[in-house]
Design goal:
42% helix; Beta Polymerase, domain 3; 7-stranded parallel β-sheet; 13% strand; DNA polymerase, domain 1; 5-stranded mixed β-sheet; Beta Polymerase, domain 2
Length: 573
């Protein structure tokens, strides 16, 4: 078991102990042990092999033993026994916003809540409002949380769905009976969440293709196994549909099963204006006087209606057809145009890689620059840096750049907490000494819309803030965005020349794609930032590019498509 996975087990043990009413000191020991493990500078295997794990401050004998077992065996009997002592549904109840272990324990012991269904029942009966420490407002928020949780359960984050889809698509393309194969639906449109997977195949011999599809590893249930359509459900709840069509119909079907309802309705309306009926089967003449064209590519489907090819990301019914007709479709940003990234963490705060390891990884990706911005001191849970530690890190960055070890230029920054009143976690003279500053909200998510908006705008107005981090604080399928007036914040960024981050972490993808076109029209630059906490997460940048494309952004509207000289010029504005 890897170090982060071990830390997650320790955190869960702390949660389970709190649910069972264990000693607070014991609970804190496991929680603190998880933080120590996450921030470990030395290799865990070396520490275990040399018997030095017990020398690490914060790791007592019991923790050392459990960490060693988890690393060796991948499981811990103590953890498994503890899990078995608590109703499994309580772990799902803990996912409801505002419900920590203490409150969940009270619901369990006093109202018999053991799962979401029972929680919903006692809330609707008004029993939670009468419970000490809860009240009517909390009860209402719990019901909202349950509603959201049920809705989330129907959709999966894009990267999770893509991880299932990619090997299936590759397998389909390798079958000898398959002429063409593509993914369609919301996955192809790069939506942030995916309801189910849609695969489309062109073949004149569908039976072997169907048999192959329903026999995929991980299939829990085959819900349909027909001649031209089959459906399966995977162990993670994701449903997948496969349709097989003749080659002559493939590109019509691909367009149909890719576009949103709004896009497809608009395209059908456009076809009618040209005397054609349009469906997944192709064009048909409305009357006998029109010749219905075929299509040997998706481009030809659009061309038949007098349009250039519209990228799948844009097919949402948001004016893409009008833009295509006017020759105004954007030249969407591409991943290979990214020259470097900002907003990345190291072991100085809550990252898992050192400054040098992050620089090496960035250079390995061919980037020209890497922005390091560890947390500021108010993010104590993330081992945020105080002024002295920040100064030491800035000096370390300068030494690394001067050493010539890497061609990539490391930029010294900070992800500075926006405090309640909109002031920042560091004084202006400290911020002035940095290459760049990302300002982010990390607490007080329940402020009302007006207060949250004013707080963020005040931070944006600080002359040292270069970019605003994860604007709404959302965690997709886990935490709702906090209340904030996004148009007002965009206006403030435009007025102050402040960049807005597109946080590429697949849990965040924040700011949402629906706002980027508006922001770009206001002249606000985007910075696609991975918010990487280890070298692998630098790859999150690809998710950010997907969302930027969905937001109609071009390379010119993305700060980090600029070369180093251009970025330094902008930062020195």
């Amino acid at each position: 078991m890897e170090r982060n996975d071990i830390a997650a087990v320790l955190d869960e043990i702390a949660t389970l102990l709190e649910l069972t009413g264990e000693n607070p000191f014991k609970i804190r020991a496991y929680s603190s042990g998880a933080r120590v493990l996450e921030g470990l500078a030395e290799d865990l295997d070396v520490l275990i092999a040399e018997g030095r794990l017990a020398d690490v401050p914060g790791l007592g004998e019991a923790l050392v033993e459990k960490i060693t077992v988890l690393r060796r065996d991948g499981a811990l009997p103590f953890h498994q026994k503890l899990r078995a002592s608590v109703p499994a549904g309580l772990l799902e109840v803990l996912q409801i916003p505002g419900l920590g272990p203490k409150k969940v324990r009270a619901l369990w012991k006093e109202l018999g809540v053991e799962d979401l269904a029972k929680l919903k029942e006692v809330c609707e009966a008004g029993a939670v409002a009468e419970l000490k420490g809860f009240g009517a407002k909390t009860q209402t928020k719990i019901l909202e949380g349950i509603k959201n949780r049920v809705a989330y359960g129907k959709r999966h984050r894009w990267y999770q769905a893509a991880a299932v889809a990619e090997p299936i698509l590759a397998g389909l393309r390798a079958l000898p009976q398959v002429v063409h194969a593509e993914s369609a639906g919301s996955l192809r449109r790069n939506r942030e969440t995916v309801g189910d997977l849609d695969f489309l195949v062109a073949s004149s011999d569908p039976a072997p293709v169907m048999d192959w599809f329903v026999a995929r590893p991980g299939v829990k249930e085959v819900t349909a196994h027909g001649e031209t359509k089959s459906s399966v459900r995977f162990e993670n709840g994701l449903q997948a549909d496969l349709r097989v069509v003749p080659a002559a119909q493939f590109f019509f079907a691909l367009h149909h099963f890719t576009g949103s309802k709004e896009h497809n309705v608009a395209m059908r309306h456009r076809a009618l204006g040209r005397g054609l009926s349009m469906s997944e089967w192709g064009f048909k003449p409305v009357d006998g006087g029109t010749v219905a064209p075929g299509a040997a590519s998706e481009e030809e489907v659009f061309r038949a209606l007098g349009l250039p090819w519209i990228p799948p990301e844009l097919r949402e019914g948001n004016g893409e057809i009008e833009a295509a007709e006017a020759g105004a479709l954007p030249d969407l940003v591409r991943h290979e145009q990214i020259r470097g990234v900002f907003h990345n963490h190291t072991t100085e705060s809550d990252g898992d890689a050192t400054l040098e390891q992050m620089a090496a990884a960035a250079e390995g990706r061919g980037w020209e620059y890497l922005g390091v911005s560890d947390h500021s001191k108010s993010s104590f849970q993330a081992r945020g840096l105080d002024e002295a530690r920040l100064a030491a890190q800035v000096a370390a960055v300068a030494r690394l750049n001067a050493s010539g070890r890497f061609r990539v230029r490391v930029l010294a920054g900070s992800e500075v907490d926006i405090l309640r009143d909109g002031t920042l976690d560091f004084a202006d003279d400290v911020l002035a000494g940095l290459d760049f500053v990302v300002a982010s909200v990390h607490n007080l998510f329940t402020l009302d819309r007006e207060a949250q908006t004013a707080r963020i705008i005040r931070a944006v107005e600080n002359e040292h803030v270069d970019m605003l981090g994860h604007l709404t604080g959302r965690l997709i399928n886990r935490r709702e965005p906090y209340e904030v007036d996004i148009p007002k914040v965009i206006d403030a960024c435009a007025a102050n020349g402040t960049c807005i981050e597109l946080n590429a972490n697949p849990w965040r993808l924040d700011m949402d794609w629906r706002w980027w076109r508006h922001a770009a029209e206001k002249g606000v630059l985007c910075s696609i930032n991975p918010d990487a906490h280890d070298v692998e997460q630098l790859g999150f940048t690809e998710h950010g590019v997907r969302v930027a494309r969905k937001g109609w952004l071009t390379a010119g509207q993305v700060l980090n498509t600029r070369p180093l000289a251009g970025v330094l010029d902008w930062l020195g504005r």
